[in-house]
Amino acid sequence: MGTAAGWEAVELRVHGVSGAAAETLLDHPIVVRVAGDRHAGFYRPRPGTGAAGGVTTGVVAEAYRWGTLTAGAAVRSALLLLLLPFMLVNLAIWLRPTPTDRFGLLGVLCRLLAGTLTAAFMLSMVGITLNLVGWQCVPYDQCRAGRPYLSWLTALPMGPRLALLALVPLLALRLISAIGARSARALEGFTPSAPRPESAGTAGDLGAPEFWNDERTTDWLRQIHVGIGAGILDAILLVALQGGRHGPVGLLLFGAAVGLVGFCAALLCLPTPTSGVQARRVRGLLRATTVGVTVLSLGYAALARQVQPIAGQLPGYEGSATGLVAAQGILLVTLAVVTVARQRAAPPGARPFLRGLGTPLVAAVAVSVGAAFTATLVFRVADQLDRGTIPDPIRPSPPGVGPLDPPVAYWWAALAGLAALLVVAAAAAATLVLSRRRRHDLAERVIEQDYPQAPSHAAPRLRTVRQAIARSHATEELGPMLVAFFVISSLGLATIVLDLFGIGPTQLAARVGGQRGGAAVLAAYVTDAGIWIVSLLVIGLVIVGYRAYRSVETRRVVAVLWDLGTFWPRAVHPFAPPCYAARAVPELAKRVSALATRGPVVLSGHSHGSVLAVATILQLPPTVLHRVALLTHGSPLHRIYARLYPAYFGGPTLCALGDRLDWRWRNLWRATDPIGGPIFQHHRGAPPPCDPPAGEAVDVRLRDPRAVTIDPADTVPPPVERHWPYHTQAEYQAAVRELIDRAG
């Protein structure tokens, strides 16, 4: 412990994903919180109960537990699953190959794509309430028979009926806007305690003090997305009320609704205002315009009592869905082209994942997940209203039953979802089979190096270790699977042309093979299968959300997804789950700065905790850096983050980090670890990341298991520890002692 003068050497442990308990981090049964709160706190063993497990003599162990930020609230963990498409599109911008974004083009494209996801959400709600219920079901006796909750709507003329039902999408828009805002209150508001370091520019944007503070951006974007959602609803409602008769008031309001959406799209193309006064003025104007146009549109609908329903879908709805799919396709293609052009400016020797195409790939995944959510919601409601039947051009509904048929774009989305699942599964299986020999050869070389004189009776144990090493490298073989998904998503854009003409899968098969041919029937059943498979996946996600609400263990599993996906600030979609690093990084920097005034500090990060540790050190002021050292173990910094986020965790950033610490840095890794790996391992033919290669001493490989034979004092051979734990190894204590001495 500390001396009378207050000197104290501290080993500050930071856990990875899934929210490890403070008792687990400290390997001690009795701990007490010394700083922070119940959401994220710093813990030490209770005085008088002994030292933490694996601690070095003369060093105080402390643990930072931040997992409750993502796994602590049951309601938040359950509801955030509904925000998965928004989280993915927000993640896409951070996978860009270079930190520089000329003219901000990548940011503009990602923000516009995020706007289309909000529009898709509103279209799904409009499709359920106005299209399926108000327009297609209520006018038909057989559809509303036995449904008193729908029968009373027949007493309302079509205009007031649609105006009343339009309140449901507006309420849903308000709800998802409130979820992100409310859940962020425990995470935001933590600002750096020191001015910007002079050397922060060498490490890229991660060193900027305001990098993790996204409150200003989300406040700016939130009102824009609310305006997009409300404008989409107003425009569709007004088109449906016109019924071929274009009155001056209706046309004026329709122009105002379209202008509102266009104004919001233009604001997405502009950077976030740096002036708070200017931002408040624009938000106030946009809020007033949104409320005014929406209230006038609802009032106009409530007074429209001469609207005659026609058979088919709500006028303007299918065209809106098709136009939205077309806009998303154009944005994805443009995003891919711009990303390829930006990749040329990547630093030499860099090997970003999928050649830097992570941004368009994750954006395509976000669009696909959003389409799956939308199609599932609309199809399942239509199926319920149809009492179990699924009509299509080959199998029409019985006479007297409304044509409860979703837009053609949703049929193509279901078919594309089925194709993507099959192709991705086949690509994953083929990749694992084809890479099997390469992974086993690598494992064999590690075995020969670590256990050169293993006895013959240890052959079964060697086989187990060889399989563990080979399986640990399967993580790096996901590229072909994701490429296959990207190709399928790109080919799915060809259906945009068919959407524009209202041709669905069964209609296309009927025209090619004949109305009564087997191709049309087969296409109908395949499309139905796609709808059900995609629906089951989404329903399974909803069940997981319910389990996350009821079960702590399930909530921790769900939190793994949020730990990885919500690490970055919300830069493109304000409805995405909040960034927990907005609190964790400034809070860690403040705690480390305070501890460093009393003695040396070793910031020990395990797994994803090493990423938080690196971000923290880049935020530290120069006055305390000389007393800080870094210990990473099981770290994905190079293996995953440097390849997924080369603009922020690439070789230049890691080398700049080592220079800031004067290379007081050790990284422990195992060949059996499926997540962690070396930091400064460069590939053949590529230049080393640092010149001179000062980082060669950083990486320390641990043999795992320690032996393949049974110790005379034991009954079983040493376990294969893979990713956890590291602090029980003697090399860990040696690294802490060395770093403490250098930092002291």
Q: Please, could you describe this protein's structure?
A:
There is one protein chain. The protein has 744 residues and is mainly α. 56% of the residues lie in helices and 6% in strands. It contains 29 helices and eight strands. It has helices at 22-26, 68-71, 74-79, 84-92, 105-137, 141-144, 148-151, 158-165, 167-183, 215-242, 248-268, 276-303, 317-343, 358-385, 408-434, 436-450, 459-472, 479-491, 495-500, 505-513, 518-550, 552-565, 581-596, 608-617, 622-625, 637-644, 646-649, 651-660, 730-743; strands at residues 10-14, 31-36, 41-45, 60-65, 601-606, 628-633, 665-670, 699-702. An eight-stranded mixed sheet has the order 2-3-4-1-5-6-7-8, with helices on both faces. The longest helix has 33 residues, at 105-137.
Topology readout:
Blueprint: E1 10-14, H1 22-26, E2 31-36, E3 41-45, E4 60-65, H2 68-71, H3 74-79, H4 84-92, H5 105-137, H6 141-144, H7 148-151, H8 158-165, H9 167-183, H10 215-242, H11 248-268, H12 276-303, H13 317-343, H14 358-385, H15 408-434, H16 436-450, H17 459-472, H18 479-491, H19 495-500, H20 505-513, H21 518-550, H22 552-565, H23 581-596, E5 601-606, H24 608-617, H25 622-625, E6 628-633, H26 637-644, H27 646-649, H28 651-660, E7 665-670, E8 699-702, H29 730-743
Parallel strand pairs: 1-4, 1-5, 5-6, 6-7, 7-8
Antiparallel strand pairs: 2-3, 3-4
Helix pairs in contact: 4-5, 4-14, 5-8, 5-9, 5-10, 5-13, 5-14, 8-12, 9-10, 10-11, 10-12, 11-12, 13-14, 14-15, 14-18, 14-21, 15-18, 15-21, 16-17, 20-21, 21-22, 23-24
